[in-house]
Structure formats: C-alpha cells, structure tokens
UniProtKB/TrEMBL annotation:
Organism lineage string: Bacteria, Pseudomonadati, Bacteroidota, Bacteroidia, Bacteroidales
Protein name: beta-galactosidase
Record carries keyword Transport: no
PANTHER family tied to this protein: BETA-GALACTOSIDASE
InterPro entries: B-gal_small/dom_5 (IPR004199), Bact_Beta-galactosidase (IPR050347), Beta-gal/glucu_dom_sf (IPR036156), Gal_mutarotase_sf_dom (IPR011013), GH (IPR017853), GH-type_carb-bd (IPR014718), Glyco_hydro_2 (IPR006101), Glyco_hydro_2_AS (IPR023232)
Gene Ontology MF, one: beta-galactosidase activity
Catalyzed reactions: Hydrolysis of terminal non-reducing beta-D-galactose residues in beta-D-galactosides
Enzyme class: hydrolase
C-alpha cells in the first residue's frame, strides 16, 4: 500500500490539475491508510488527502487522517418512496436507508471539514432523476464541496454479429460467467460518445452562472471560483407561443467569483392575453477559449412572463351529426370526418377518419384504442441493484393486464353533440385501474376526451397513468409545445426548455444499449403528428398540461428485448399521453425516486381535445 502511494505521488506531483490525493477506493480501512496519509501530508503539505473508506473505525465515523469527509451515493433530505412501510412509521426500506443524507453530515457541529460525495447520480440508462435537488442542497451549505458522477461514458464493447450488424455488447454477450450484465453502462455519454439527455441535465445544473428574477430584476450569481463575469456576454430572447419575437443583449457587470449582482430587464410591450410568453436569458463566451468557441452557451434560464391558456373546456356544437348504431358498433360522422367504436369486446375505437384519411392503424398486437397504459418498460433504475419496482410490477401482472369492458353507452346533447361514455378495467393480481372515458363529438370533427383513472385494491407503485393510440405510419413528424427538445421526466426536466419543438418520430427514442422506457416529454400543451403534406392529427391539453411520447415501439416491444440491436421499429406510430408519470430516481446504484415524484393512488384526470391538423 505505502509503495503504491509513494509511486503515485512522485509520478504526479507536478501536475497542477491534481487538487488532492486519494488513497484508494473500496479497500477497507486500517493502519496502512493512516501511514499513507501521514506520509502524503509530509511529502506534499499543499494538497489535502481524501479516502471515502476512512469511516466507521473504532466508533469514529470520520478519522482525522483525511482532510475531506466523503460518502458514496448519498440521499437528499427529502422523503423517498418506501412501499411496504406503513405511513408514518419511522423506518425506511433497506434500499434507501443504507445511503446517508449528505447535508446532514455537513450540518454536524462536531467537525468543520468539507463534505463531498465521491460517487453519486449513478447514470445507468435512463437515469439522473432529482439531480437538481442534490445541488440545491450542495449550494445551501458552505461545507459542501460537490460530488463525482458515476460516470462519464458507457463502457460497452462493439461486437460483430453473424449477419454483419454491429452491436454494443455487455456482460454475458461473450459467454463470460460470472458477469454483471449491463452494469458497464453508467455514463452520461454512450459508448460511441454520443450525448444522452442526462448530459444536458448535468450541464444545466452545473452551470457556472445562476440566473433568477427577483422584484423585476435579474439577479446574477457567479458560481466560478477564480474568474469574474467579464469573459461572458448576456443575451435574451422573448418567445410567444414558442416562436421568437424579440431579442437583445444586456450589459453584464464584472461580478466577482462567488458574488451576486442585479441588472435591469428590458421593458416589453403589453402582453397579448391567452398567449404563452417565455423569456430566455443566456450567458455566452465572449471570445474563443481553449475548450470552446466564442458564442458557446455556458448557462441559461427561462422565465415564464405569462402562462398561456390551454384549450377551453367549453365548446358548443354548431352542426348536425349522423349516428349509426347496431349490436356491435357505433359510428358517428359529420363534416369530412367519422369516428367508430366496437361495443361488445373492449370498447375500442376502430376508426378515426379526417378528410378521407384514416388516422389509426390496427396491428394484431394493439387490439384496444386507446389502450389504458399503466406499465412502462422498466428503466435500469427500476430494476437494478436491489430495486423493487420492476419486480413488483411483474409480480402484480402490470406487464400483462386483463382488460374488461364494464359499460358502453352514448347520448345526444341539447346542441347536437354526441357523448360516448366507456368504462374499462385493467385487472391485475390484487387490484385494478378503472378507466372512464367520456368522448364528446362535435360536427367539425373535434373530439373532447376526458379520461379518469381510478386505482383500486392492492397495487404496487404505479409507473404511469395514461392512454395510447396506434397511428398510421404516414404520421411520423412529431411537433409539440412543451418541454424539450430532449426527452424529460418529472424529476429530470431542469434542462428541458418550454418551446415549440419538431422532429421525426424515429428521433424520439433514446437507444440505450439495453432497451428501456424513453422519449417522454413533460408539460405538453399541444402536439401534432403529421404526414409529408403537414396534415394529420392534433391533440390539445384541456385544464392541465400532460406528458407525451411518440415512438415506433410499443411498451411491450421495448420490454421484451434485452439488446438495442434486436429492437425493431414498427411502421406505426405509438402516441402515448399520460396524466401522471413516475420519476426516474437514481437507484441503479443509490437512492430511489423521491416521493414527490411518485404517482398517488387516487383518481387522476387526462383531458384532451383531438382534432384534424390541416
């Protein structure tokens, strides 16, 4: 041990980028480490000494042989999901309780050493939930140093398959036993150095300049330790309903490291009622640096100046509708549209036609439209390192529910609109989710769809509550007003701006080497799926924004594959819209989902307005 430490220090003593010496990793603790620490302090008194393993010896939680108190995979001081533990009981599941709360260590008064987490935010697959909460706490206490994300890049290995395709292989793909399967995929980047949505979340939270609006002024905090803000420019853009309307530049004062200052914001013309106004403030490099070109954005913040109205809940029908019904089906038609349901099996919508174009597709493995979605293809966080979520979902049959049609009826409103009420149940091992869908059909083809989801009985933590349609292949351009452009989730959306975004459906899925849920977009106000002529279907939020995704995969497509190379996109478009989505958490190695990002087992409502996009 001592020889290794001496060689390390002699080899690296003249590298200015080395700010402290580390005595090792996960190697226990004993007199050998105490001796190494003494030698390092004598050899180089300018650098502190670190070792996460220096803890819990002879009743001393943090021996004085190290200059920094360090922990793995700490928790924030908020409540985590603890299913199976009665509400109010002063205990937690072992998967959470094993991890200490970092801020509590920093708040102890019997020590004044700096505190850090030498591994945290385990970035395996679709991960990095509640990352901002970590840094809210880190910035709140001067003893907190920060932490080291595990880790930078996936460590997959390219493997050529017999058919000539290349795959990113992981444990077991070479016949190796024992192995840790996909535990080599923990990076912010893919193995080929492609970025993931996790990367952008880290960049946003780690930004060296913090921006806040206080009392009508912009408060700027310089998070840098060694430079003032004279190296940066400050630009602003004003967007109305997702479209840029104005832009300008603000003179940035030379705020010293660690200090704050306030500057005035531009005066904007009177805001149009009903429209959504978003102000983005960006901090950019003035000149080229060794690591980036002039104009590179190092920080940004978005401020909502006025929240736009969602679609009105009150619509009046202004034309006639034709209703045809027999024992098996219900057909409603109006000007240039028709919609049809079957009534006997599962209450499925069998056709939706706008301008002679069928919107829906009906593959054999998607028999119900819209289908109630309660399950998601488990993320690595849902199923790794002792997490109970994916195991509980499978145990309760969440992955293969039995769908029962409970009731189907329709009635005509006084203004001629037709109301269709359908109730179904997704049945699980010991519980169910009852879905009540109320369609109000108008003569111009607009369909108001109000869906309520009521969990009943014994259910595990719920991954989502929503519906999904299977749309025809032609409608493969996805446009949405909501958070983007990268996918985002309730606990990982700090880096996703509100805006009007557009891309192909194929671009929405994130190809993690082990298939799992991805592609979600939060706070969606409206979306369209259109063909090459920019025609198709539009869905607006009524009352509350919703979560959405548009993919070339069903949940089962993703769930049933273990390698991305075997995940075959289908031609159809799976449009998912959710009233609630479970957060991601960090529990592939570390604490799980914060309770505030869980789905309460109560009634949830998804209110949408479906119409033709022409």
């Amino acid at each position: 041990f001592m020889d290794r430490a001496v060689r390390m220090a002699e080899r690296d003593k003249n590298y200015p980028c080395i700010v402290m010496w580390s005595m090792g990793n996960e190697s226990g603790y004993g007199p050998n480490f105490a001796a190494i620490s003494a030698w390092l302090h004598d050899f180089d008194p300018t650098r502190p000494v670190h070792y996460e393993g220096a803890q819990g010896v002879d009743g001393n939680p943090d021996p004085k042989t190290v200059d920094v108190i360090s922990r793995f995979y700490t928790r924030v001081k908020q409540e985590y999901l603890n299913p199976g533990i009665a509400e109010g009981e002063d205990k937690e599941r072992a998967e959470n309780a094993r991890w200490e709360r970092l801020l509590e260590i920093a708040e102890r008064t019997n020590d004044d050493r700096p505190v850090m987490t030498s591994e945290y935010a385990h970035s395996m697959g679709n991960a990095l939930g509640n990352f901002k909460e970590y840094w809210d706490e880190i910035y709140s206490n001067p003893r907190m140093l920060g932490g080291f994300i595990w880790d930078w890049v996936d460590q997959g290995i390219y493997k050529t398959l017999p058919d000539g395709r290349t795959m990113v292989a992981y444990g077991g793909d070479f016949g190796d036993k024992p192995n840790l399967k996909a535990f080599c995929f923990n990076g912010l980047l893919m193995s080929d150095r492609e970025t993931t949505p996790k990367y952008w979340e880290v960049k946003k939270v780690y930004a060296p300049v913090e921006l806040k609006v206080e009392n009508g002024e912009l408060r700027v905090t310089n998070r840098n330790h060694h430079i003032d803000l004279s190296l940066y420019r400050c630009l602003w853009t004003l967007s109305v309903d997702g479209k840029e309307k104005e832009r300008g530049e603000i003179t940035l004062p030379e705020i010293a490291p660690g200090e704050s200052g306030t500057i005035g914001l531009p005066a904007f013309r009177s805001l149009k009622p009903l429209s959504d106004y978003q102000l983005k403030v960006s901090i950019l490099l003035k000149s080229d640096a060794l690591w980036a070109k002039a104009g590179h954005e190092v920080a940004w913040e978005q401020f909502c100046l006025q929240k736009g109205d969602l679609a009105s809940a009150d619509l009046i029908n202004k034309g006639a509708l034709q209703v045809k019904e027999d024992d098996n089906s219900l057909l409603i038609s109006g000007r240039s549209f028709s919609v049809q349901w079957e009534k006997k099996v599962n209450g499925s919508m069998t056709s939706l036609i706008y301008k002679d174009k069928e919107m829906l597709a009906h593959p054999d493995d998607f028999p119900v439209q819209p289908v109630t979605q309660v399950f998601r293809a488990p993320t690595d966080n849902d199923k790794s390192f002792g997490n109970w979520l994916a195991k509980d979902w499978k145990l309760h049959g969440m992955d293969h529910p039995q769908i029962n049609l409970e009731s189907f009826r329709h009635e005509e409103r006084a203004d001629g609109a037709v109301i269709v009420r359908i109730q179904t149940s997704n049945l699980y091992k010991e519980g169910k989710v009852v879905t009540t869908s109320v369609y109000t059909v108008f003569s111009d083809g607009t369909i108001d769809l109000k869906t309520t989801f009521l969990p009943q009985g014994v259910l595990p933590e719920i991954p989502r509550l929503g519906i999904a349609f299977c749309l025809a292949p032609a409608y493969d351009t996805f446009t949405w007003y909501g958070r983007g452009p990268q996918d985002n989730y309730p606990d990982r959306k700090t880096s996703a701006m509100m805006g009007l975004w557009k891309g192909s459906v194929a671009e929405q899925y994130v190809h993690y080497p082990r298939p799992q849920d991805s592609g979600n977009k939060e706070e969606v106000h409206y979306l369209t799926l259109t063909d090459k002529q920019n025609k198709g279907i539009r869905v607006d939020a009524v009352e509350n924004a919703f979560s959405a995704s548009a993919l070339h995969y069903t949940v089962q497509d993703i769930y049933e594959e273990t390698h991305d190379c075997d995940l075959k996109p289908r031609a159809e478009v799976i449009l998912s819209m959710d009233a609630a989505v479970l957060g991601l958490g960090n529990s592939s190695c570390g604490p799980g989902v914060l309770k505030k990002y869980a789905i309460e087992k109560k009634e949830h409502t998804l209110h949408l307005r479906i119409s033709s996009k022409q």
